[in-house]
Write a structure and sequence with these properties.
With about 280 residues, the protein is of the alpha/beta class. Helix 1 packs across helix 4 (about 120-130), helix 4 (about 120-130) runs parallel beside helix 5 (about 150-160) and helix 6 (about 175-190) runs parallel beside helix 7. The longest helix has 23 residues, at about 260-284. The protein has helices spanning about 15-25, 40-55, 75, 120-130, 150-160, 175-190, 220-230, 240-250, 255, 260-284, and strands spanning about 10, 10-15, 25-35, 60-65, 85, 90, 95, 100-105, 140-145, 165-170, 195-205, 215, 235-240. The protein is globular and about 55 Å long. Strand 10, helix 6 and strand 11 form a beta-alpha-beta unit. Strands 3, 4, 7, 8, 9, 10, 11, 12 and 13 form a nine-stranded mixed β-sheet that branches. The protein starts with 7 loop residues before the first strand and ends with a helix.
């Protein structure tokens, strides 16, 4: 695979020229991050990407699963067991529902129980190759699903893609989660990456029988935090047990449950995110 210029990987410099050429063909690059685990960040990433594909971007959306140690995007999209193809132009991503192009460490492991025991330099090398050696083609949107926290993978992505449109931060209605997410906001600002907005996941439960909204956890904390920190609030996604069931079965939730309140929430978030992307481009 390619070698880098100007930034060192474990086995030589990364090919910055190849990386820039691949990424120049992608209109919008968005990282999805969280300060801590357990907030449903990957579920949000997958369904957000699917929502964009459904609404006018079929065959024009990609997902880079940059969680090297715990890749789960392939499982949620029914792509377990797939392998990446090799063509003259480079490595070809797996193709998921609605033509979504997916790259994940999961596709490179001998089996689903094999751990990845790597330190930082190897992880950065792998991520750089996912960006520079993969034939992503022409895309409207590339969503990058990052592991929790502000360690190697988020740092590598934000350093390798200085022209990234920005990050979307996922939280839940928990004071502990919101406290840690503040660190994610400050991390993005430290690296001069725009915060496109905050999504509050697991925000209440809508009873399927009577339609009543029940706050299982506290609600509204994500919106208050966004206001306090001066970043956009993209919306709330209520809990729906079918989201977990569909994810385990590899079925995109927003396709199997188009009338669910959670699906409607994702659709509304898509429109708000598009507005923030437009504002960000106008300000550059």
């Amino acid at each position: 695979m390619a070698e880098e210029k100007g930034q060192e990987g474990r086995k030589g410099p990364i090919d910055r020229e190849a990386l820039e050429e691949r990424m120049s063909r992608i209109a919008h690059k968005i990282a999805v991050i969280s300060g801590k685990g357990g907030v449903g960040k990957t579920t949000v990433t997958v369904n957000l990407a699917m929502a964009f594909a459904v609404h006018g971007h079929v065959d024009r959306v990609g997902i880079l699963d940059a969680d090297i140690h715990g890749p789960s995007v392939p499982t949620m999209l029914g792509l377990k067991g797939r392998r990446l193809g090799v063509v003259p132009a480079g490595i070809f991503p797996a193709i998921g529902p609605l033509g979504i192009r997916v790259v994940s460490m999961d596709f490179l492991l001998p089996d689903e129980e094999s751990p990845v025991v790597w330190r930082g330099p190897l992880k950065m090398r792998a991520i750089s190759q996912f960006l520079s050696d993969v034939a992503w083609g022409e895309l409207d949107y590339l969503f990058i699903d990052l592991p929790p926290g502000t360690g190697d993978e988020p740092l590598s992505i934000l350093q390798l893609l200085p022209d990234m449109d920005g990050v979307v931060i996922v939280t839940i209605p928990s004071e502990v989660s919101q406290h840690v997410v503040r660190k994610a906001v400050n991390f993005s600002r430290l690296l001069k990456t725009p915060v496109l907005g905050i999504i509050e996941n697991m925000s209440g439960f809508v009873c399927p029988n009577c339609g009543a909204h029940i706050d299982i956890f506290r609600s509204g904390g994500g919106e208050r935090m966004a206001e306090e920190m001066g970043v956009p609030f993209l919306g709330k996604v209520p809990i729906d047990p079918a989201i977990c069931e569909d994810s385990d079965r590899g079925i995109p939730f927003i396709i199997s449950h188009p009338e669910s309140p959670s699906t409607k929430a994702f659709k509304a978030i898509v429109e708000r995110l598009k507005e923030e992307l437009k504002k960000e481009r106008e300000e550059r």
